Amino acid sequence: MSLRRYVAKRLLVTIPVLLIVTLVTFMMSHLLPGDPVAYMTQFSEIDDETVQQLRAQYNLNEPIWKQYVLWLGDAIQLEFGQSIISERNVTEEILSRLPYTVLLGVMSLGVALIISIPTGIIAAYKKGELADEVSRVFALLGVSLPNFWLGLILILIFSVRLGLFPVLPPTSYPLLSYNMIMFTLLPAVTIGTASSALLMRLMRSSMVEELNKDYVTMARAKGLPERTVVIKHVVRNSMIAVVTVAALQIAFIVNGAVVIEQVFSYPGIGRLLLNAVSQRDFPIIQATVLMIGVTIVFANLVADIAYAWLDPRIRY
Amino acid sequence: MTNQGRLTKGISRRNVLKTSAAAGAFGLAGCVDGGGGGGGGSADFGTLGANASTFDPAASADASSSSCIDLMYEPLVGFDFDLNPQPVLARDWERVDDTTFRFMLREGVQFHNGDEMTAEDVQHSIERYQGTVNTAVVASWYDSSEILGDYEIQLNLSQPYAPFLADLSGVSIVPAGTTSPADGETPLDDESQGTGPFQFDSWSQDDRFVATKFDNYWWGDVNDAGDFSGEAPLDEVNLRVVVDPSAQFNAIQGGDVNAINQVPPMDVPTVEDDGNLTLNRNDGITFDFLIYPVNSGPFQNEKMRRGITRMIPRDDIVGDAVFNGTAVKGSSPYPPILGDPYWDEDFEQRLLDEYVGEDVDAATTLLDEAFSEEGIEAPYQTEIRTNENPVRQRWCEVIANTLSETEYFEVSVNVMEWSSYVEFITGPAAETSDMVALGWTASADPDSFVYQLFATDQFTPNGYNINHYSNEELDSLMQEGQTTFGADQRGPIYKDIAEILAQDVPVTFLWHGKRLMATRDVISDFQVHPSASADYSGIYSPALGQEIEYDG
Questions:
Q1: How far apart are CA B401 and CA B413, in angstroms?
Q2: B79 phi/psi in degrees, rounded to 5
Q3: Which of A33, A46, A267 sits opposite B419 (nearest CB)?
Q4: Sign of the dihedral through C-alpha B239, B242, B245, B251
Q5: Going by DSSP bridges, is the β-strand pair B435-441/B380-387 parallel, antiparallel, or unpaired?
C-alpha cells in the first residue's frame, strides 16, 4: 500500500472516531445536572416563560439525540454557533485562545524532548552507572509529581521568591514576544517534565536494546569511531519508538494544559473548556473537545508517517 | 453597588463559581514568604476573582462584573465606606411623604458620550431596569416619576418602602435612549455610557479588563474639589482575571499586581508581616449560616436545631481553626457595620447567652429532650451540603466533626459542584433532611438580611427562603420594617426579628466575614468597601469620601 493510500485510509478511520468522541462528550455534558439557561438565570427573577423561551432558542427542549443531530449538522459545515453564556461566536472564541495553547504545547513538547533524549542516551550508554541511577530517580519523580503542584512550586520559587519570571502572563505583549515566551517557559517546564520522564525511560530502554545488537558490534569491530556508532546508528534506530510515543504525548500535553493553564492564569483553550464545563456552555464544550480530538488523531497520524520516514523498511 | 440580598460562595456567587473550580484542587500554595522582584513590565492594578459576564449595570449579577461597572457608572445615591448614604449624582433629596421623594440633581455632570445628565436620563435609567435580571432593584417600589425640571425629578413609590434608598443605590444612571438588556441588546458591553471617573477600554475573557480615565469627570467642575482631586489619580485601571486566591496572592507578592481582592484567611499573617504589602480591612455585609430542614424529621423540633447550634464552636472557627480573625462571630443576621440601632454588642451577647451561643451543657439537655420527644436513636445520621469553596468546606468539616464527636450525631459533609448546589438549594433543599451551609450578601438596609430568606412569600424558587420556614409573627414584623421610615423606629422592629430568629433557629447565623484586600506600597490610603461588588471603588470615589494616593 502506498503511503498516500495509507494516509487516506487513516483519515477515513478518524471520522467514526470523532463521531464517537463528540457523541460521548455530548451525552456526558448533558448528564451533568443543570443546563446553561439555569446557569444564566440562577438567582435572577425571571419568569418561567422567559426561561422556556431561552431553552427553546438553544434547542434545549429537544430530546438529547435530536440536539446532537442538530449540532452535528452544523458542525459538519464548520458552524459551531455561539456561546450560550457570552453570546460570542464559538469559532472566534476558540481561535483567539488557540495560539496561546499551541505555544504552550509546542514549548512543552520541546522541553520534554530536550530533557528526555540526551538523558536517555546517557542513561543507556552509562547503564548501571551513577548517571543512569540519577536519571531513573528523576524520571520517577517526574512521573509521580502532580502537575499542578509542580506548577505552584515553580511559581513560588522562580516567580515569587527569585522574581525571575512574572506570576501572571504578560498578555499586554504580543504572543511571540520575548516576555510571553519567557513566561510560557514555566508552564511548559511543568507539563514537559512529566512527559520527559516517560520519553526518557523509553529512549533508554530502546537504546539499550539497540546497543546489544550485532550490527553495533560489527560497526565497532569495523573501527568506526564510537561517536559515529552511537549517534548515527544506534540513536537513529532507537528513535523510532520514541517518536511514536512523543506524538502520543500530545494528548497528554493537551490534558495537562487544561489544568496548568488554570494554575498559571494562562488564557488558552484549557481555561475556556474549564469555564464552559462549569457554566454548562454546551457549544463551547463540544467544539473544544472536537478540536482536541482532531489534534490527537492527527498527532497519531503524523507519528505513523514519521515512523516510515525514520525507518525506510517500514512500508504501508 | 449591589443591593438585593444574594447568595454567596464566600465572595459572591458567580465570582466564586469559577474560583471553586480551581480552588478545590489548587488551593495549596501561598505559605512561603514573599521575595518581591517582579518579572519585568509595569504592574497591573488589581485582580478579579472571575470573569466579568457583562458591563451593563442592568444585566450585571455577579461581583466581578459589578466591580468593573462600579468604576464607570454612578447612582443618584451611594453608600460610603461606613455604609452611610451619600449624595452622588443627586445633590440632595427630600421625602415629601412616605411614597413621594424628590431628587435634586447635580448640574454639569457629563456622560462618557459628552451629553449632560438631566432628569430625563434618570427617569429612563430607572425604567430601564424593569424586566431585566436586576428588576428587583426597582420592582419593589417604583410606580412612576415626574420630571420637575432639568435637574429635579420626583419618584412616586407604589408603597411606603423603607429600603428604597438602598435599592436606588443599585440603579446606575445612563443616557436616555440607552437600550435595555431586557430588549436583548447590550451596547454597553463594548462602550461605557456612565458618568464615572473611568471609561471602558477593553475586555478579554480569562485575561483582563481595562478602563481609562474619563477626562471630563464631573467632580472638579461641580464641586470645588475639596479634599479630593477633580479627576482619578491614575490614567488606567488594569484588572487581571486570577481565579485562584493563592495565585492572586502570588501575583501581588511577585509584584505583578498592586492590589488583590481575595486574600485567603491563612495568608493573612504573611501579608501582615510583609513590609511591601498592606492589608486593608473593613466590615462586610455578608454572613455565613447553617440552614436546617425545618419541615423534615427531627429538625421540626426547635430543641434539635438549637441543640446543634449550641454545639458549634464559633470562637474556634473565627479564630485559628479557619478564619484567623477575618470574621466576627454573630448571633443575629446583622453585621456590626449596620451599627446602631440594628447592631450592638450587648444585644448580640444576650442572644448568644440566652439562645444560640456555644454551651455544651445546654446543648446536651436540649438534644436529650429533642431525641426523646422525636423518638430517634443516637447516633443520628445527617449531612451538611456545601459547595467547593475551601474556606466554607473547612468550617463545615469543623462543625461536622464537633457534632460527630458527641454521642448524638454522625455528620458528613457533602461537597457539591456550584451549579448542582444552586439547583439543590433553589429547589429540592426544602424537601430533604440535610443541612445546608451557605453565605449571603446583603445590602445597606437591614431588610436585605432577612426578608428574602425568611418571609413566607419568599419560598424557593421565587425567593431565597430555602428551607420554607414560615412564621406569621415574623412575616408581619418584616412587613412593618419595610414600611416604617426612620432608623429609630425601625431599630426595635429588626431587633425583635433577630430575637425571634434566635429563639426559633430556622437557621444558625454563624459569623460575618470581613472584607480584605491587600495592596502594595505604591498605593496608600486605600479603603475596602463593605460590598464585594464595589472592590475598586476604593481607588477614587470622591462623592463617597475616598481617593488613593498612587505612586506607580
A1: 9
A2: -110, 130
A3: A33
A4: negative
A5: parallel
Residue type, B544: L
CA distances from B229 to A158, B225, B438 (A): 40, 6, 41
What distance in Å separates residue A46's CA from the closest CA in chain B?
7
**What is d(CA B222, CA B438) in angstroms, rounded to the nearest whole number?**
44
The whole-chain average pLDDT of chain B stands at: 88
Query: Per-residue pLDDT tens for B106-129?
Result: 999 999 999 999 999 999 999 999
Instruction: Count the neighbouring beta carbons within 10 Å of the beta carbon of residue A178.
Output: 11
Best to test chain A binding among B54, B190, B205, B257 (most A CBs inside 10 Å): B205
B306 three-state secondary structure: helix
Cell numbers 438553544: residue: A58
Provide the 10 A C-beta neighbour count for residue A310: 16
Q: Which residues of chain A neighbour B26 with C-beta distances below 8 Å?
A: 148, 152, 262-263
Q: Side-chain half-sphere of B537: how many Cα atoms within 13 Å? A: 29
Give the DSSP per-residue string, B363-430.
HHHHHHHHHHHHT--SSEEEEEEEES-HHHHHHHHHHHHHHHHSSSEEEEEEEE-HHHHHHHHTTGGG
Picking from A149, A184, A147, A152, the residue whose alpha carbon sits closest to that of residue A166 is A184
Grouping H, G, I as helix, E, B as strand and the rest as coil, residue A294 is helix
Residue A3: the pLDDT is 73
**Class of residue A312 by CB neighbours under 10 A (exposed 0-12, middle 13-18, buried 19+):** exposed
C-alpha cell at B100: 413621594
DSSP B35-99: ----SSSPPB-EEESS----S-TTT--SHHHHHHHHHH---SEEE-TTS-EEESSEEEEEEEETT
CA B431 to chain CA mean position, Å:
27
User: B34: Cβ–Cβ under 8 A, 6 or more apart, which residues?
Assistant: A160, A161, B253, B254, B270, B274, B276, B277
Match 481617593 to its residue by C-alpha cell: B547
Q: Show the cell assigned to A247.
A: 506524538
What would the mean pLDDT of A64-77 be, rounded to a whole number? Answer: 86
Instruction: Please tell me the predicted confidence (pLDDT) of residue A45.
Output: 61
ipTM score:
0.80
Give the span between the Cα atoms of A305 and A312, in whole angstroms: 11
Chains A, B: CB contacts under 8 A, how many? 151
**CA pair distance B188, A211, nearest whole angstrom:** 68
Whether this model's pTM surpasses 0.90: no
Q: Is B486 exposed, middle or buried (0-12, 13-18, 19+ CB in 10 A)?
A: exposed
**pLDDT band, residue A77 (cuts 50/70/90):** confident
Contact A275 B204 (CB under 8 A): no
Contact criterion met (CB below 8 Å) for B386 and B414: yes
